[in-house]
Amino acid sequence: MYPLDIMSWLTEERLLLLLEQYRSLGPLPGILLSFMKSFVPPLPTIGIVGLNGAVYGLWLGFLYSWIGLVGGCLVTFLIIRKIASQRHLQKWARRPKVARSMKWVRQSGFSYVFLLSLFPVGPFVVINMAAGLAGMRLRSFLLAVCAGKAIMVFAVSYIGNDVERFIRRPAELIYVAVFIGVSLWCVKAIEARFARAAREREERLAPEGPLQGK
Q: How far apart are the C-alpha atoms of 136 and 205, rounded to whole Å?
């Protein structure tokens, strides 16, 4: 129950207080909070990036969130690639969701990681670990994550930097809700597209059955 107690305690209000309290430490709190996202999946990406934008301003908030998120993804990727042969990890890799991700990474690694990095919601930890297990090239993974996260973080930071506007005009929160909803839909659509492409590729490569009539 202890991890659950911690997660219930980490509300956006408390995270904002923590960032304000330790702001004297410079960029470290904002970067570390973003970095933790790769190791504590329930932490809200939108909340963390938005809070950094509110506390540090648009550009610094964007930079600190981007550094933290990319750093967390990279460390996760490198750790998994290093211990990919471990028995327990191989057992985890056989789970359907992970196995599908690994398959898509092997077929379209850069595109898959880049496209899913564009959105603030999604199975990021699974993607990072699957890329490491699948043996994706470090340069390709880093380029895909850096580019995708930059676009996503800037969009969320822009919203977080002007929270007062949304307080004054609550109706504009509809745009945020639409942004999240569209992101979820896009993630599902991208995964469906890769699943369809994988099936078509398998059908093309499958050996033909015996010719009828012979």
A: 22
The amino acid at residue 124 is: F
How far apart are the C-alpha atoms of 202 and 62, rounded to whole Å? 41
The tokens describing 1, both together, are 């129950």
Please state, in angstroms and rounded to a whole number, the distance separating the CA atoms of residues 140 and 101. Answer: 16
Closest CA to 176 of 149, 158, 150: 158
Mean pLDDT by 10 residues, the chain (214 residues): 43 64 76 87 81 83 93 93 82 81 80 83 82 87 88 80 65 68 71 71 63 45
Question: Taking Cα atoms as reference points, which of 193, 198, 207, 190 lies closest to residue 107?
Answer: 198
| Contact (Cβ atoms closer than 8 angstroms) between residue 81 and residue 107 | no
Model confidence, pTM? 0.72
Give residues with Cβ within 8 angstroms of 29, minimum separation 6: 18, 19, 22, 23
What's the Cα-to-Cα distance from 75 to each of 13, 71, 138, 149, rounded to whole Å? Answer: 28, 6, 11, 15
Determine the Cα–Cα distance for residues 136 and 24; give it in Å rounded to an integer.
39
